[in-house]
# Entry
Amino acid sequence: MKEVILNLAKGMMFLLLWAFSVCLLAQTVTVKGTVTDVKREPLIGVSVKIQGTAAGTVTDSEGNFTLSSVSSDAVLEISYIGMKTQIIRINGQANIEIVLEEDIETLAEVIAVGYGTQRKENLVGAVSAISGEEIQAVHSGDVTNAISGRLPGAIVMQPSGEPGRNEAKIMVRGRTTLGDNTGPLIVIDGIPDRSLYEIDPNDIESISLLKDASAAIYGSQAANGVVLVTTKSGSEGNWMSYTFYQGFKTPTILPKAANSAEYSQYISDYQDYEGLARLYSDKDIELYKSGIDPWEHPQTDWMSDLVRKWTNESNHHLSLSGSHNKMRYYASLGYRNDQAMYAQESTHYKQYNLRLKLDIPITDWLETSVSYGGFMTNRKYPTTPTYQLVGWASMVIPTQPSFWPTGEPGPDFEGGVNPVVNTSFEAGYDQQDNYKNEVTFRGTVKPEQIKGFSLNAFYTLDINN
# Structure
């Protein structure tokens, strides 16, 4: 009787498992589809993604795609450059036909190219662009870091996180193509060889990256590409804008080192094994564990004493824009205050930006403009480079104190190496004050008799220390 019951139980279990597997299979489908435009022409390279997941594919040369093991209630997101993105719920369908429509607003966008502009729909060269709104949404203090991962074709590398030294290096070809010095030509409002780091991100209208034939108009100096920056100009109407950003920074991860008790025990075990005289007695080890003698037997966490848990960064930007009797004006004032991650207050970076631009039409065919860009910085920083300070903090033993009993950073030891002291005012600091003034006068002639023809002439004056 027991054997019969056991066999029945096994049979029921098999049926339940089979029904469960059928249920699982019924919940997923293989989806095939075709993506075309309104003229029923297949679209190649269309992105087909499953919303909420990393799964997806692209269409082949005939506009076809296949997705396996897709949930029957999944939602597909179909996107393509110059087309309106579509959101489609599968609802158990195995075959889907998708027709994408042109995104007229996107195609009508004007992009800055060499010595002019073009509508996006007419572009055939290697040009990528990012708008000022996208840059400002990042809330970065400088433009070079704001475009990281957002400007296709640009490789952005930040050499340091220290305030005032965190200007990222932009590369187009990679470091191994034409040597290490592979930065592109920077052109700001038509003026080459100006610094992208010195512009307030809130003053930027758009940035374009030119490569290959698109950059050829600039000659050999554009062998590594061209970054074209267009700053904001005055607009119709009168308005004032104020932007404030307060950010907080914290280390993502800090290395964890052995504490004083662990370190002294490890050293003692090694010396006992080798038959050497002990550096730390059993009493020393117990005192390190107890923490009752913070001067003679400290529990120093060098990395925590060197780096604070939180620091802040703030940005202020005030701008005025408008027009009067056909004259357009734009004026802005920016301020940036960036504090370092050091626990000691010896490092800061302050930046001030002033920008003025006047566009004055003289006649229907002649327009003049004058612009001014002012840039001033104040930077204080330790006399020891950051990489050395962090290296010292990872090597100094935890049984050495990082502060005097009075709470002041110290003492120096091992040849004057104490990273906490070196980041304080007690060890001295370097101060760097920079200023730059840029003035540009420009004249533009557009003869009515020659459609599409224009002649630009400009004079620039740069004064800096």
The chain has nine helices and 23 strands. The first helix runs from residue 2 to 26. The first strand starts at residue 28 and ends at 36.
